[in-house]
User: Fold this.
Amino acid sequence: MNTQAFIPSGSREIAGVLLAGGQSRRFGGGDKCLQMLDGKTLLERAALNAAPQVGALILNINGDAARFPDLGLPVLCDSIEGHAGPLAGVLTAMECVAKHVPQARWIATFATDAPFIPVNWVARVQACITRQKADLGTVSSNGRSHPVFGLWPVGLRFDLRKAMEQEGLRKVDAWTSRYKVATVDFDITPVDPFFNINTKEDLSQATAFL
Assistant:
């Protein structure tokens, strides 16, 4: 594997986070992001699409890191125990970036089960945040929002930890609703760019799209 392909080359003020800590219940369990699609794992596809958009790239997981391929990326386990969902990955990344990547003011989160991620969504969302003077940003397509694909200010890490630890907050939408959110809508022609694979049937459909 050529790990050079996963070296970040985008804005230094944005750190990317590949969220791979889900339990994949609808897929039948296991690490869904390690499923193959046309010669690459879903995780590799997500990393290849994310790297040009960010200045640093992190893999967020749950459990033993040895089961994942070495992409040459830092690997972080959730700092909130018990499979607390995507927000745990967001918080873990925020705190890590604040400590180790001080030049990054934002984190961009990427679901690792979406093989057709646009390579410009981060820039478009950042521009929309600026225009609308919003607190954070996300994307939508086909009439649905996709809050796991978000651009989050690192400065919200204290509020997020408080919400997760003291309030038990777990849903991404419940968190983002507290802020002004800029949303960029993407065209679904010829394929929904945020199509995500939840089931084995979805994986077959993604193969057909390719």
